[in-house]
Design goal:
It contains four helices and no strands. The protein is mostly helical.
């Protein structure tokens, strides 16, 4: 099991926003679909600088 940092998680979510298929992200980063959708529900679409400033999106 690999633990991802917050900046890595946000980077993976941004890859999906920019058109990389979710199935490709699963293969590329070795994660499950449940993990991806859980991250997306927690972090939404956040940029790395926003995370560094503590600006979390309102859900």
């Amino acid at each position: 099991m690999f633990v991802f940092t917050e900046s890595q998680i946000i980077g993976i979510l941004n890859e999906a926003v920019h058109g990389i298929s979710v199935a490709e992200l699963f293969r590329r980063h070795g994660m499950s679909d449940a993990t991806f959708y859980n991250w997306r529900s927690i972090y939404g679409v956040m940029k790395v600088p926003m995370m560094n400033l503590g600006q979390f999106p309102v859900i």
